[in-house]
Amino acid sequence: MFYRLGKFATRHRWLIVGLWVLAAVIALPFAPRANQVLQSGGFESPDSESQKAIDTLVQKLHVNETIVQVIFTSNRYTVADPQFTQQSEQALARIRSWSDVAQVTSYLENPRQVSQDGHAAYVNIQMKTDANVAAKQLPELEQRLQKVPDLQTKIGGGPVFYEDIQRVSENDLRRAELLAFPFAIIALLLVFRSVIAAILPALVGGFAVVVALALIFGLGHITPLSIFVLNITTLFGLGLGVDYSLFMVSRFREELLHGRNIEEAVAITVATAGRAVTFSGLTVSIGLFGLTFFHINMLHSVGLGGILVVLLAVVAAITLLPAMLAILGLKVNALPVRVPRFGRRSVAVNTELDPHHGYWYRLSQFVMRYPLRVFFPVLLLLLGFGAPFLGVRFSAPDASILPSYVPSRAAYDLLVQRFNQRETTPILMAVQTKGNALTPDNIKNLYYYVKRIEADPRVERVDSIVSADPRFTLSQYQLLYTHPDLIADPYLGAFLKSSVSGNTLLVQVVSKYGMVDPNSQTLVQTIRNTNPGNGISVLVDGGTAGNIDYVHSLYTDFPIAILIISITTYIVLLLLFRSLLLPLKAIIMNTLSILASYGALVLIFQDGFLHQILGFTPLGFVEASSPILLFCSLFGLSMDYEVFLLSRIQEAFWQTGIIAVRWHWVYSVVAALLPARQ
């Protein structure tokens, strides 16, 4: 089939190139606009308890989790000074009158929003829109926030965090492209020693990326896609496009050197390297397909985008590239590049004609001569690199993952340094009762339930309608809420209005420990596992609960993804190599290399090894989706090279049988793994 495809590409070369050029021309107006339809965030699991809790609070209490924080600081004044309040209110005047703002909660209404030294305070601006829309409204918010002479302002919160993630991702992507593309061209020039041959892989990768981005622009109008799709599309499109083309062009030049005519050289190239490229693309797609099993939109989106660009890279490599090779013919070697030769001149022979020379040949001979001496040290090395993964600590991403110069990170650092961080990340409880929450029986049940929570040594404070004033007794609360409209205390009246609606109320628990502290996590689990009784149901949300649910959702689905990826990859490699053991060997070897990558991930980014040299601040944890992204991408990519290597070994063995002659018992094992050609 692949041989006939090569013949077809040769005969219809101009048509194929024309169709690809037409596709690129159509795609060009849409490809740069792909980011317009992509969404920030996407780290929530729609089926998690924390998401159900916030959905309940939004539906019943109209709580909007889209909050922008404006932090005011002053070296001259404290919050107690009238000038601080006057200038902060002046700065917020146009925001308070903005129709897209649902509510502004000032430090005047909640004294806990004042810093410990009194020289800073923050204001919560609750937007009417969701986080993605609010992120696009930030320029107007910044414009409405008036500058005042004696206060400095910083803006943070969820929408700012998501906007910064998008901006940093796009900037990093552009920087990576600017750095990677020249290096890729230089590497291709060194490999091919011809400008024309070096340009071809870059063209194939470019075509694949442009068309993929245009398709993503269309797909983004149909289904929600994460901003991280851009990164995976460019990375895999250019990387695999260059990768596949390198093997195809190398094989084509080799066939020309063996005296084939152009048509035959193209056909054999597609039949051999093209076949390997196709199966390689399938293995990479299988790995990325595993990401679509996750309920986290970020991973699901990356999987869809990755599969799309990989398939396009494969199609371009086995159609567009053969057509261009057929057009160029011997001109593929045009514009030669002189590369300095090092070492003895007698060794510098053309390895495409005589592969029995050079470093790689000597290395392969050493490995085949001393297999066990190589196998066990390498195995121990991989296991040693993977060992740090045993101490991994997972967490959801927050502003600490961003560079220190972006607004959300600066605001986050300020909150951590000058405020009680526990106050900014309470445990949120969506509590529902049988019937109206303010009936005497329900108030009694809620009162004793809250008392049980307050008795936990990990709890700093509980904010609820039955703990609003510690001086009140149960009877006083029951009497107070018999006629809620007659409550004279404006603070308590406002608190009741914002916390209760029908049978639903909001309870906030402030932990004595930080959001990601194990004590706070066990506190959330304790609250969830405690049965309130008396017809009360509880759903728990908040930063700690969301973190727990995020990690749980990921690693509940991960084993299923691993199983499906492994089984599907085994079947594909079984069809390719017609061997029962080779696919198993490939899966085990790739798993070992991925485990080594996991260990490096923990050692460097969690524990901070070499962080001063590499120029980053260690997080103290591993972002929970990173191992999953690494597995699903590295499994396919490393299998990619496995396919190329074993395909060529198998082809050489079928043609010559040299391996069995040169290599005693090990070659007999290989011969058993590679059944005779049918």
Automatic annotation (TrEMBL):
Keyword Nucleotide-binding in record: no
Domain SSD span(s) in chain numbering: 183-327
SUPFAM superfamilies on file: Multidrug efflux transporter AcrB transmembrane domain (SSF82866)
Keywords of the record: Cell membrane, Membrane, Transmembrane, Transmembrane helix
Location of the protein in the cell: Cell membrane
Transmembrane segments: 12-31, 202-220, 227-247, 267-294, 306-330, 370-392, 560-581, 587-606, 613-637, 652-674
Entry GO terms, CC: plasma membrane
Topology class, membrane: Multi-pass membrane protein
Superkingdom of the organism of origin: Bacteria
Name assigned to this protein: Transporter
Provenance organism: Dictyobacter vulcani
